[in-house]
Amino acid sequence: MELIWRGIIEAVHMILSADREVLQITWLTLQVCLFSTLISTILGVPVGMLLTFKSFPGKKAVLLLSHAGMGLPPVVAGLWVTMFLWRSGPLGEWQWLFTTNAIVLAQIVVSLPILISLSYSSFKKIDKGTRLQLKALAPTKIQTLLLYLKQAQFGLWAAVMAGLGRVLAEVGAAMMVGGNLQGQTRILTTAMVMEVSRGNFEIALALSFILMTIALALTFVLLRLQQKEASV
Amino acid sequence: MKQVSKCMMGMLALTVLAGCANSEENASGESDDIGGQMILATTTSTYDSGLLDELVPVFEEETGTDVKIISVGSGQALAMGENGEADVLLVHAPAQEEVLEEEGAVINRHRVMHNDFVILGPEDDPANINSLPVDEALSSIAEDNHSFYSRGDDSGTHFKELDLWESAQIEPEFEAYEETGQGMGDTLRITAEKDGYTLSDRGTFLYLKDVLDPLSILVDGDQSLENIYHVMQVNPDLSDQINAEAGEAFVSFFVRDDTQSIIKNYGIDEWGEPLFFPHLID
Fold first, then answer.
1. Residue numbers of the domain that contains A31
2. Which of A104, A213, B93, B105 suits a disulfide with B156, CB 3.0-4.6 Å?
3. With the CA atoms of A73, A79, A82 and A86 taken in that order, what torsion angle do they form, in degrees rounded to the nearest 10?
4. DSSP tag of A90
């Protein structure tokens, strides 16, 4: 119990004293996680749409893979991304291993299936009658798609929240592909693992409070957006 | 086709990000004699002890190279070297290093420093190994089936531990012998928590001593417990991406007198004794 108090005090102290390293780690975590969620959303929502409204060969396989992928352990994603990014690997030329790009890439791999599967569910929920109505309302294909987006947005926001939650929580992949390099690829979760192994439980606890605060704040914003848009 | 163009878009966006990151780095580095990035694969013990935090910034300043320190077990560090995935290695598994040197995977190898391994156990020492010779201490632990926590991760410390069992002519297969499969810090914490025995390098133990309450040094000082570190370059022929110039510069940097004296003095202020002993100066 005392440890928890000390952790809270340490966290407040770290934030108030604007500890440069902690601020840098927090900022980097935000950048990396928001960016990877953004890319996953940009890629995942159209794919979810495609799966709902179009039929094409291999559709069932894509559905299965994206749904199974929601449970893909981050270390597995990390391992594969690492192997691709090795100097001897197919993407070795990019020199991305142990950079933030590698973390973003790994986080996309773990969050994309969530975005695809959950946006598929959201689009699927639009019932047939509404669909026909929307088609009648919109003269062009693009307008139809935009109306679908609007109809499905409640679920889509939930998909974004789930994806973001996943990348914020993820540590195995970021550790493997990023290397937890001080000032370069150290994010909140990897820093916590390191501090625990060094026996600095208070610092780890303090970092965990910062991470949870960020998660809470971001979810709050997204939830507001979801409720606001949905009530229109 | 649609899929491909989507992928391309994603990659494009990522490349833009990469571009931003790079330009930031360039702006902050002033001297650029060698430049580029260099991957230093090293052991958890050198990294956790904080020694590299002291040395690497000096090297980065001198050469304008962006050093990425990857701290893993010596086994993994050597494997990275063997595959050309690192540029320079700082490890403590001499027998395994020699194999790579013979294969030609590493070159320009130099002994740079040492410290020692210690056998740790609970203060009340149920196996009664305090100040015993290494062989006898190990056989006492094995015979009475006391908990012993091995790294079990192909690290330099793990290799050393296996050597010690072998020279004591004991198969470490007794029931209470367990492998943690984790780094030194975690293994020490598990050992402390479970009142067991373990082998550690002195540096990491001193560094973590405060949080490892009941553990104390029971056996040390034996010749066989010497912990020798070598620095070496990865053979540039292994990959066209190896920063050979930086690797060579790092080896020269490590054997230089002023670097060696930083090693010599490191840790005295904080722990009252040095964590590493340089090999090339007295």
1. 2-231
2. B93
3. -170
4. T
Instruction: Determine, for residues A199 and B69 on separate chains, whether the beta-carbon distance falls below 8 Å.
Output: no
Tell me whether residue B190 is exposed, middle or buried, using C-beta atoms within 10 angstroms of its C-beta: 0 to 12, 13 to 18, 19 or more: middle
- pLDDT score at B45: 80
* Predicted confidence (pLDDT) at residue A3 exceeds the cutoff of 80: no
Which tokens sit at B164? Answer: 């010690």
Q: Taking Cα atoms as reference points, which of B82, B86, B85, B112 lies closest to residue B96?
A: B82
Q: Would you state the pLDDT for residue B121? A: 95
What pLDDT, in 10s, does the model give residues B149-168? 999 988 999 999 999 999 99
CA distance B208 to B176: 24
Domain count within chain A: 1
Domain CATH code at residue A178: 1.10.3720.10
pTM of the predicted structure, to 2 decimals: 0.84
Residue A174: which residues within 8 A CB-CB, separation 6 or more?
A74, A78, A103, A106, A107, A180, A185, A187, A189, A190
Nearest-by-Cβ selection for B84 from A88, A93, A199: A88
Which positions in chain B touch A100 (Cβ < 8 Å)? 17, 21
Q: Find the chain A residues whose C-beta atoms sit closer than 8 A to any C-beta of B.
A: 35, 39, 42-43, 46-47, 50, 86-88, 92-101, 104-105, 108, 179, 181-182, 184, 197-201
A115 token code pair: 């975005």
Domains of chain B: 33-114+228-278 (3.40.190.10), 115-226 (3.40.190.10)
CB-based contact A101 B17, cutoff 8 Å: yes
Residue B127, CA distances (Å) to B121, B124, B139, B173, B195 in order: 9, 9, 10, 17, 11
B85, A88: Cβ pair inside 8 Å? yes
Per-residue pLDDT tens digits for A78-106: 999 999 999 989 999 899 999 999 999 99
Residue pair B68/A181 in contact by the 8 Å Cβ criterion: yes
